[in-house]
């Protein structure tokens, strides 16, 4: 993210605590203050730091150079993902209330750290398509707000999807209901996920199909590629590059926004050579590889959108990648799961 990743040093401090550094794309490293007890990864150029001095914890933001930014923001005690990516020009932040450990709520700031929507929500998603789902104290269900914080839709259901192409869904007991941002119901399906690039994936009769905005079926997939129900949490979820990584019992698949499978797992000689465990592709153009085997040795790495290993991490000597017996499947075979 922004040309930098947060890395934990191999050697710990005298007290056994981790030491954090910034690792840059050119291979340079900048060690951070040893009093920083926790550093998140960067989200669109911003990371959150927890600092402990004499057992007193404070929280603040840093930029990719490791410099403190947004000094006027009083951040609450760290929670899971206390700082979010910048989406539609707004970033969700978990704020400290008036009293310590009380009244800690989510709000939104712009790219310069200016508060745009005050902290008043107990839970929020990220903005998507100009809208965001939030939850309020003492109110059942989910609320859809615009970038000014205005309420545009409310549902007592908990299963909702982000706005994509001006359409969102609400998961109810009898199926998945699709609406436009005016609240008009567009379609009811067994299940489905968020629209991206004019397409969504719909579950029908235990099969998954790709549909257009009028819910016409464009492609139907075999159970090997896409099986069972599909939602924004379970199914193809597209990132900033228009690619979605999906995992099922058959392995990992990367699908583009036109519905084609462009990458799959690669396994040769019973695990002697293996590339699997893809993560989602990020704006940097890379996806994490959780499992790489080269001559039976284990590595982790980063993969580009062509399926090539761009970075390789391990404890041994880096192997000669040019000598790998790479024999990728023909494109027609990879796409055979689509009919």
Word description of this protein:
- With 339 residues, the protein is mainly beta.
- It is built from 1 helix and 30 strands.
- Strands 26-27-28-29-30 form a 5-stranded antiparallel beta sheet, with no helix packed on it. Strands 4-5-6-7 form a 4-stranded antiparallel beta sheet, with no helix packed on it.
- Strand 17 and strand 18 form a beta hairpin.
- The C terminus is likely disordered.
Tags for this entry?
about 350 residues; mainly beta; 4-stranded antiparallel sheet; disordered C terminus
Classify the beta-strand content into a percent band.
35-45%
End-to-end separation: 37 Å
Care to count the β-strands? 30
Strand order of the largest sheet: 26-27-28-29-30
The helix content is: under 10%
Main sheet characteristics: 5 strands, antiparallel
Number of helices: 1
Task: Write down the overall mean pLDDT.
Answer: 84
- Sum up the overall morphology in one term: flat
Class derived from helix and strand content: mainly beta
Poorly predicted regions are: 331-339
Rounded radius of gyration (Å): 22 Å
In short:
The protein is mostly beta strands. 1% of the residues lie in helices and 44% in strands. A hairpin with a 2-residue loop joins strand 5 and strand 6.
Layout: helices, strands, pairs:
Blueprint: E1 4-8, E2 20-24, E3 29-31, E4 36-39, E5 47-53, E6 56-62, E7 68-69, E8 91-95, E9 105-109, E10 115-121, E11 123-124, E12 131-135, E13 142-146, E14 151-155, E15 159-160, E16 167-172, E17 175-180, E18 185-189, E19 191-192, E20 200-204, E21 207-211, E22 217-221, E23 243-248, E24 251-256, E25 261-264, E26 266-268, E27 273-278, E28 287-294, E29 297-303, E30 309-313, H1 331-334
